[in-house]
Amino acid sequence: MTREEMQRLADEDLMTLVDRKDPDAFEVFYDRHGGPAYSLAHRIVGDRTLAEDVIQEAFLSIWRSKAGYDRARGSVRSWSLGIVRNRAIDALRRSATPAPRLDLDDDAVLEGQHATELTDSEAIRRETARNVRGALDALPREQSQVIELAYFGGFSHSEIARMLGEPLGTIKGRMRLGLEKARARLAEGMAVRDSSEVLP
Amino acid sequence: MTGTGMIHGERRDDLAAYALGALGVAEASEVEAHLATCEPCADYVRWLRPAVDLLPASVEQLEPPTSLRESLMGVVRGEAAAVQPAASAPAVTSPSRWRSWRGVVLRPATVLAALAVLAAGALTGYLVSASGTDSDERSLVTAQAARGASDEAIAATVEYGAGDDAILQVARMPDPAPGNVYQAWISRDGTVEPAAAFLPNQDGASTAALGDTLEGADAVLVTEEPRPDRKVPTSAPVLRAPLG
């Protein structure tokens, strides 16, 4: 199969080739997901060199995995970013690097780059980032805070409760309310095709 | 926890924390067991999932450096070649021969296997001489293209020293970049494990202890690394020895 043919494959089909240890397929996989993965790793560890180490470790673990990708784990993007998140949180805990800031005010950085410097895919990713941040920014601060601490900081609900000096039930309730509101806003403003738009 | 056809408010809290990855291992296992039997709760987690999945998309979008891609693909292609040697790169020492040598020559200072040496340029064959007294044990090795290596052939052998520890000996290795070291790796079943780091002397010679861990190994790799404590290679191999 040529590289051009691989580039037209759906993620799930591409992973079948990656599972067979096809390095060309893995390269296409990295080209698709390496950018978002690196961005996530950098957001969590707050350091470019450490983020590179995280990506190297995470993608090599995917390449070397004997179990391979399982469609039951969700989309290839979600599955691979989950691996990157876990590696990044492990790296953050191992390193002496201070935790990165936990606000979502990245627009100033994004706006600082001229649009013509961006490729189409980068522009789409950044537009998506703005939309998602819009959904999160609309949350009450105490709700977005616990979501960020859990997802980007890797803290458990009990660690967050101790950190903020709040009852565990309060923290879990904030997580739920924040996620439900964010999910509802996504349903209103963004195409989410793989799930019902109605709260079960 | 049992499915009841509806989700209690407190249960929703646990499910949301689970979706965020904010539960401990034991709690997460408990939730997963419950989700396997409770369709309403499973539906709720599936409904929440897109909100969690899009959290990574909210961050500042950065382009990873091209050196990261090159480094990653160097390792991947090196391991793919170690697992499935290219048809155009004939085996240097067949697995059966290598294993038979090992059985015969487990003694100090005896050449055990010749390394396939990755050097710049087209495929080239050359001799790697045995060290010690077993001068009749010479093996034709095959050079394969690799970036950054010298045109001059790098010589490398693996020997067993005292205590049956395997030792990598190299000659005519170019100096690594300032501050960098060479790192030996043992490739086995598609994975690599770090062995020893080393620096060549002014003549390009050096030795590195590989330990007694070559059983089942399919190749010995050498990469250039910015520091000696790497757990995974960060650059393409400059030496590769397909042992079996």
Brief summary:
The complex is a heterodimer of chains A (200) and B (244). Chain A is mostly helical and 200 residues long.
Question: Care to describe what's here?
Answer:
The complex is a heterodimer of chains A (200) and B (244). Chain A has helices spanning 3-7, 11-19, 23-45, 48-64, 76-94, 107-111, 120-137, 141-151, 157-164, 168-189. Chain A is mainly alpha-helical and 200 residues long. In chain A, helix 7 packs across helix 10. The radius of gyration of chain A is 18 Å and the shape is globular. Chain B is an alpha+beta fold and 244 residues long. Chain B is built from 5 helices and 10 strands, in the order αααααββββββββββ. Chain B has a 4-stranded antiparallel β-sheet with strand order 1-4-5-8. In chain B, strands 7-6-9-10 form a 4-stranded antiparallel β-sheet. The chains are: A mainly alpha (200), B alpha+beta (244). Chains A and B meet through helix 3, helix 4, helix 5, helix 7 and helix 8 of A and helix 1, helix 3 and helix 4 of B.
Distance between the termini of chain B: 52 Å
Question: What's the N-to-C terminus distance of chain A?
Answer: 43 Å
- The total of beta strands of chain A comes to 0
Please give the number of β-strands of chain B: 10
Low-confidence parts of chain A lasting 5 or more residues at pLDDT below 50? Answer: 100-118, 191-197
Give, in order, the helices and strands of chain A: HHHHHHHHHH
Q: Count helical runs of chain B.
A: 5
Shape verdict of chain A = globular
Which structural class fits the helix and strand makeup of chain B?
Answer: alpha+beta
Secondary-structure-based class of chain A equals mainly alpha
Share of β-strand residues of chain B: 15-25%
Radius of gyration of chain A over all CA atoms, rounded: 18 Å
Bin the strand percentage of chain A.
under 5%
- The helical percent of chain B reads 25-40%
